[in-house]
Write a structure and sequence with these properties.
Strand content: under 5%
Number of helices: 19
Structural class: mainly alpha
Strand order of the largest sheet: 1-2
């Protein structure tokens, strides 16, 4: 049994990451949708102030994402992640004890410090999956990150019950207990790299089937960072990543309050919020599989198209059934914020500098969260509706559809030039 576990330890790594992201990512997905109204009413603060606190969390998270690679190199992933999970547990305890905007702010800063390692949009999970898996990397990353949706769906039932029957404070305390359990699990089971156990990454050196033909894993070496800094495609991807994720985030966290504004009851809106997280678990898995089968480029365009369609449907949804359909369609676009980017970047720029540039792209995802809450809730406070927010989000996603097509053409040209130089 021990020998079997060691041989297949890559699946153990994937499983514990799935559990960890299910709790930390799921709780993060529920933070605004379930707590915005009860917390602001209890503490007597505006929705804009609540969003400002969350945006500061994202700002700190952007910094922690950029620095997380250095932290891993210095302390190791296992130790760093365990420490971050303990910090996250402390943050949710602070949220539960909060009696003012400033305590919420302290909790958000603590959570922000952990985003780079604990979030599906941070460096942590993609880095570990890249270390342990060469074969089926997209599918495994899709499965692991789908936990944020599935975990959010399951946690929404627990947290909503706490909010309705006990207090929103106990909704936060319950998450703190679960995150502490994750910290213990990580300390006992996580391993940074298979070579630390005398193992090789799953599928290393095997022939991989792709729509473009057969190739060995890691065939495309790619550019060095000094070379990438001179490539327009690199900056184009930074911009497209930021804008596309901003378009998704503008409405993802505000689904429940938007639907309540459309005439649905609080119970109906929160139920659809939970359904969306369940849909997200399915779509992240689907998007991971599509990345392996169709390639990250095509899959990213599919996600953007569904985001546009889902936003349009959310804009006109006034009944429960219509809102469910809108949430299901929109959920196909949400994996832009965690699945497609870490798979698309190596496809465009190679694996040579992945350890350096992945933090930059993930930081752009965090940066999009900084503005999304402030923009969406400031507009709501000004006009009393999320409809203008939806129009902005649709425009951003359409712009990124065009931008990504130009990005792909530029990156492919650079890759062909790199291959030609290697043959000389």
């Amino acid at each position: 049994m021990i020998a079997w576990c060691k041989k297949h330890y890559h699946w153990i790594i994937a499983t514990i990451l799935l559990i960890q992201l299910g709790i930390t990512g799921g709780a993060a997905n529920n933070f605004t949708g379930l707590h915005l109204i009860p917390v602001t009413e209890t503490l007597g603060i505006s929705r804009t102030a609540f969003s400002l606190s969350g945006s500061i969390r994202s700002l700190v998270g952007m910094g922690s994402t950029l620095l997380s690679g250095i932290l891993i190199m210095r302390l190791g992933y296992r130790f760093s992640l365990t420490a971050c999970l303990l910090l996250t547990a402390g943050a949710y305890t602070v949220f539960g004890l909060a009696d003012s905007f400033y305590m919420l702010l302290i909790g958000d800063i603590l959570v922000g410090l952990t985003v780079g390692l604990c979030s599906s949009s941070g460096v942590g999970a993609p880095r570990v999956i890249s270390a342990w898996f060469y074969k089926h990397r997209g599918t495994v990353l899709g499965v692991v990150t789908s936990a944020t949706g599935l975990g959010g769906s399951v946690l929404s039932i627990l947290q909503n019950a706490m909010i309705q029957n006990v207090s929103w404070r106990w909704s936060f305390f319950s998450v703190a207990i679960l995150v502490f359990g994750c910290a213990v699990m990580m300390a006992l089971l996580m391993r940074d790299h298979p070579n630390k156990m005398g193992l090789k990454p799953h599928g290393e050196g095997e022939i991989i089937e792709h729509k473009k033909g057969k190739h060995h894993a890691r065939l495309w070496e790619g550019h060095s960072m000094p070379e990438l800094y001179k490539k327009p495609a690199f900056y184009m991807m930074i911009l497209c990543t930021f804008l596309s994720c901003l378009g998704v985030y503008l409405m993802f966290s505000n689904l429940s309050p938007h639907l309540q504004g459309q005439g649905l009851t609080s119970t109906e809106a929160n139920s659809i919020h939970g359904m969306q997280l369940f849909f997200l678990a399915i779509t992240k898995l689907l998007v991971g599989v599509l990345c392996d089968r169709l390639g990250p480029k095509t899959t990213t365009l599919i996600c953007l198209s569904f985001a546009v369609a889902g936003l349009f449907l959310l804009n006109i949804a006034t009944t429960f059934s219509m809102a469910v359909i809108a949430a299901a369609v929109f959920s196909v676009g949400v994996p832009l914020t965690g699945v497609t980017v870490p798979l698309l970047a190596p496809d465009l720029f190679g694996y040579r500098s992945q350890g350096h540039y992945i933090g930059i792209f993930m930081a752009m995802i965090s940066a999009s969260s900084i503005l999304s809450g402030i923009i969406s809730n400031s507009i709501f406070d000004a006009v009393g509706s999320y409809h203008p927010v939806i129009y902005i989000a649709i425009g951003l996603c359409v712009l990124c559809l065009i931008g990504n097509l130009l990005l792909y053409r530029t990156a492919v040209r650079d890759q062909k030039k790199w291959e030609a130089e290697k043959e000389i």
